[in-house]
Amino acid sequence: MTAEKICENVSGYSVRSAGTEKGARIRVTEGLLGWADLIFVMEQKHGDRLRSKFPESLEGKKVICLQIPDNYEYMEPELVELLQAKLNPYMKMPDNEIIPIFKNHATVARADKM
User: Which of 38, 39, 61, 71 could share a disulfide with 109, CB 3.0–4.6 Å?
Assistant: First the structure.
């Protein structure tokens, strides 16, 4: 949720967040993966879960592992800093913006069609 929150104001992108585990409030679906241009995961195990469960939906898609331990609380300042630094090469992050991600979640983004 933190990543989704801080990315919501990034110009040119629409962002959604969903969980990779059974107990997630909002779970990753084939439709969500089909919608996405970019798929970000916090840890390698999240990407592995997606590849295992949705191999066809990920064909031609890039799954980007941010290599951020999934042990932060929502909007924790250190997490926000890490996310901004790791996401900036893919999505130009505005200065001093805040971004959200949930534990055991994948965050997906789609470039808005102008």
Answer: 38
